[in-house]
Amino acid sequence: MSKALYTAEATATGGRNGHVASSDNVLDLEVRVPREMGGPGGAYTNPEQLFAAGYAACFDSALNLIISKAKLKTGTTSVKASVGIGPNGSGGYGLHVTLVANIPGIDPAEAEALVRQAHAVCPYSNATRGNIDVDLQVTTDELTSENA
């Protein structure tokens, strides 16, 4: 990689039952193992939620870049990322990601093509390509407060 345009820094202490904070303290959270993985659960975040949030935001930005370059008019896009964790069959654990990109106001086939292009340029997609399974799904529904 050439020179970084931006470098984020965060520190974790205590692992999955600890604390994470960014160097500027904008992110300052307690983390816990989710109940589904044998942990206490509760009103805490976990690494998978943080990864899902980052991937969704990054992919939505990549998608909007592709839409802008194509000079298309769409409704407001959204990306929902679901990150699953489970045994990888080799004694460790692996991740699986499902991205559901919603691009209202355009033809579904065109939306699928835009999502494939976004997947080719998104830094998170490029970082994970070949390492984890990423399932891309596309919708073209107008989102309301009821289905957002």
Low-confidence stretches: none
SS-based structural class? alpha+beta
How many strand segments? 6
Strand content: 25-35%
Strand order of the largest sheet: 1-2-3
CATH superfamily of the largest domain: K homology (KH) domain
Rg (C-alpha, Å)? 17 Å
CATH fold description of the largest domain = GMP Synthetase, Chain A, domain 3
| Helix share, percent | 25-40%
CATH class of the largest domain: Alpha Beta
Shape verdict: globular
Going by CATH, the architecture of the largest domain would be: 2-Layer Sandwich
The total count of helices amounts to: 3
Largest sheet: 3 strands, antiparallel
Mean pLDDT: 94
Give me the strand/helix succession. Answer: EEEHEEHHE
The number of distinct structural domains comes to 2
C-alpha end-to-end distance: 36 Å
Organism: Catalinimonas alkaloidigena
Protein name: Peroxiredoxin, Ohr subfamily
Pfam family, one: OsmC
Family: Belongs to the OsmC/Ohr family.
Q: What is this structure's SSE topology?
A:
Blueprint: E1 10-13, E2 19-22, E3 28-30, H1 47-69, E4 78-87, E5 93-102, H2 108-121, H3 123-128, E6 133-139
Parallel strand pairs: 5-6
Antiparallel strand pairs: 1-2, 2-3, 4-5
Helix pairs in contact: 1-2
Structural notes for this entry:
- It holds the Pfam family OsmC.
- It comes from Catalinimonas alkaloidigena.
- This is Peroxiredoxin, Ohr subfamily.
- The protein has helices spanning 47-69, 108-121, 123-128; strands at 10-13, 19-22, 28-30, 78-87, 93-102, 133-139.
- The chain is α+β, with helices and mostly antiparallel strands.
- It folds into 2 domains: 1-45, Single Sheet (N-terminal domain of TfIIb), CATH 2.20.25; 47-139, K homology (KH) domain (GMP Synthetase, Chain A, domain 3), CATH 3.30.300.
- The chain has a 3-stranded antiparallel beta sheet with strand order 1-2-3, with no helix packed on it.
- The model has no long low-confidence stretch (mean pLDDT 94).
